[in-house]
Structure formats: C-alpha cells, structure tokens
Amino acid sequence: MNGKYVAIAAGLLFGLNGACVAATPVAQGVINFTGSIVESPCTPSTQAGAFNLNDCPAQVRGTRIGLQRVDSQASVSAPDQTPVNVRLVADSGKAGRYYHQQYALVDAAGKAVSSGAYLITLTTP
C-alpha cells in the first residue's frame, strides 16, 4: 500500500506543478491616445525678397501661405501701400518623401519686394 500512496503523491506533485508554474494571464483593457503623430516640420530659410522651405514631408504638400505686412508703430506709412503676394519660384517635385520649395515676395506688378517687414504664416493640411 505504501507504494500506491507514493505513486499517487508523486502524480499529484507533478500534475499540480505545471499549474503552479503557469504564466499569469495578461491584463486586458483599453488604451486611449490623445494628441497627434507629427513628423518634423519644414526647415525655413530666408534671403532678400524670398524664403525657402527645405526638407518638408510629402504629407504637408499644399501648404497655404499667408502674408501680412508688419509695420512699426512709430513709423510713417508709405503712400504706396501696394499689396504683396507670394509666388512659387522653384519646386523639387513630387517624387520622394521630402520636397523643397522656394517662394518670392512680389508686388502687384510682379516685381520682387526688397524691403519691409512681413509675417509669413504657413498652414499645412
């Protein structure tokens, strides 16, 4: 009879050993993300009467550009308050992950603007 009890005890030991070492279940639930995934923005640079947008992600192609003249509070305004526009001068094309664009500030006659202070606002999709 002793051999019978030893065999039963050994069977229970080995049988329950697997249940005791079993991995704990993974906790379940819901993860909420708030915000947005963003890619690095364009690298802007300026020169006389023009500005460049370099290394822009392809997803932001179609950027709207706003232009507003910034005048000093103490200055006298010039009599010719002609509107200034932004004109695309060069574009690297749509092939590839990144693109480069160059814009020029021009007056109503299409001539390059070489003086003044302007606030340029870029709005990307």
UniProtKB/TrEMBL annotation:
Keyword line: Signal
Signal peptide (residue range): 1-22
Species: Pseudomonas donghuensis
Protein name, UniProt field: Type 1 fimbrial protein
